[in-house]
Amino acid sequence: MNAYAAVDVIRTKRDGGVLSDGQIDWVVDAYTRGRVADEQMSALAMAILLRGMTPAEIARWTAAMIASGERLDLSGVSRPTADKHSTGGVGDKITLPLTPLVAACGAAVPQLSGRGLGHTGGTLDKLESIPGWRAALGNAEFIAQLREVGAVICAAGEGLAPADRKLYALRDVTGTVEAIPLIASSIMSKKIAEGTGALVLDVKVGSGAFMKAESDARELARTMVELGGAHGVRTVALLTDMSTPLGLTVGNAVEVAESVEVLAGGGPADVVELTLALAREMLAAAGLPDADPERALRDGRAMDVWRTMIRAQGGDPDAPLPVAAEVEVVRADRDGFVSAVDAYGIGIAAWRLGAGRARKEDPVSAAAGVVLHRRPGDPVRAGDPLYELRTDDPERIPAARAEAAAAVLVSGQRPAVTPLVIDRIG
Ligand code: URA
Questions:
Q1: Which of 105, 107, 25, 114 is nearest to 65 (CA)?
Q2: Which segments constitute the Pyrimidine nucleoside phosphorylase C-terminal domain (predicted)?
Q3: Does the annotation count 190 as an active-site position?
Q4: Active-site position among 60, 84, 171, 301
């Protein structure tokens, strides 16, 4: 016999009530087992989106999602563990240089990553442009690589927070992704179940982010930092700007190439700045505050870990990356300054070129994407290249061209400089 009726749980939240611990434990478990129907969980998710949840409800909901699956035990890894999670953006390749960099400084980095959906890219899609590289590792392989190399980027196994896997797919098609309690519990249940000791959250704000408003991003960051602390994971968050893409590349292989430039001691200033800011936070949270990530980038140690990490998962770090069959260079039609490069518009352009997917089972093109030649604030002369559209399929160019043209603006005035790291919450 059921302890609760789903319809009563839905009514409680619909009417603005507080769910009891028993109701939460039951509904999450029963949904995972298929005893609460999708239409009932959709109604509950919508009620949560509209009514919100108290901190105690969010904590219990997160605990119930963790309890729906396994919790990895990383106690056999001798180094302190630290992970990073970004809420997702455009050109956000930071995980690629950051993971080997932090490992080169003495921590172990268990980075369970995802694939892109819509206008945001996914770390696994980017790494799969490296010939031979394999995203799927079993738990034993994952822990062995963490011990031996100190750095793993791979797909989360089926056993971690299965309630979230099911609920996220449902939220995606019912307009309920944007509920802060559901986003926070979704992200944190996976990170806590993964077993990391420390976690740094990169909470994005701006047109290319989930959270367009800074107040929402702050609330999400605070909620996740509290959840981490309550589960014994040292958690801090950086609030960072996502109104402009990170770096000069948006796509898959093009972002790998840019990450390798950063590991070689070069790369765009904003990518280097954010990589170092997150590395310092991860190392401090892991109890290694004296490590010097800037030096590990300069002296090649981070690059050495990158090469070992890629090889450990079957990839060839020296193999040429895929190149696009079709490249269109778009040039400035006047003198002036680049006044805006809108992250959302460029993310959509890269998606239209084939770099992203509309449904989670769609394939992505490794070579497709947008390469910027100028960033906001850069001066340009009429005829200078502004950006390139790259694709395997020329029929994709017109739609991408229209999106990119609306996203990249040239005007007579240099725009104000805005900070990349907006705040630290923790
Ligand atoms: N990423 C997640 O893992 N979950 C969400 O709900 C939103 C973004």
A1: 25
A2: 337-411
A3: yes
A4: 171
Residue nearest to atom 1 of ligand 1 (CA): 187
- Closest among 359, 363, 368 to 395, alpha carbons compared: 368
> 200-225: per-residue pLDDT in tens?
999 999 999 989 999 999 999 999 99
User: Considering only the top CATH level, what class is 6-52?
Assistant: mainly alpha
Per-residue CA distances from 329 to 77, 385, 386, 404 (Å): 48, 6, 8, 12
Q: Ligand 1 centroid vs 159 CA: distance in angstroms?
A: 17
CATH of domain 326-411: 3.90.1170.30
Q: Residue with the nearest Cα to atom 3 of ligand 1?
A: 187
Instruction: State the amino acid at position 155 in one-letter form.
Output: A
d(CA 160, CA 164): 9
Q: What are the sequence ranges of the domains in the chain?
A: 6-52, 82-157+177-312, 326-411
State whether the beta carbon of 187 lies less than 6 angstroms from ligand 1.
Answer: yes
- Strand 421-425 to strand 234-241: parallel, antiparallel, or no bridges (unpaired)? antiparallel
DSSP secondary structure code for residue 76 in this structure: T
The model's pLDDT over 380-393, given as tens digits with 9 standing for 90+, comes to 999 999 999 999 99
Q: What CA–CA distance (Å, rounded) separates 227 from 231?
A: 6
Strands (E), 103-217: 109-113, 151-155, 198-205
Amino acid residing at 200: V
DSSP 157: P
Question: Under 8 Å CB-to-CB from 245, ≥6 apart: which residues?
Answer: 89, 90, 91, 208, 341, 343, 346, 347, 370, 372
3-class secondary-structure state, position 192: helix
| Contact yes or no for 368/390 (Cβ under 8 A) | yes
Single-letter residue type at 34: G
User: What predicted TM-score, i.e. pTM, was given to this entire model?
Assistant: 0.95
Bin 117: left if φ > 0, else alpha if -120 < ψ < 50, else beta.
beta
Task: From residue 27, give the alpha-carbon distance in Å to each of 20, 177, 263.
Answer: 11, 18, 46
CATH class belonging to 82-157+177-312: alpha beta
**Which residues touch 173 (CB under 8 Å, ≥6 apart)?**
none
| Model pLDDT for residues 329-368, shown as the tens digit of each residue | 999 999 999 999 999 999 999 999 999 987 777 889 999 9
Annotated catalytic residue 186? yes
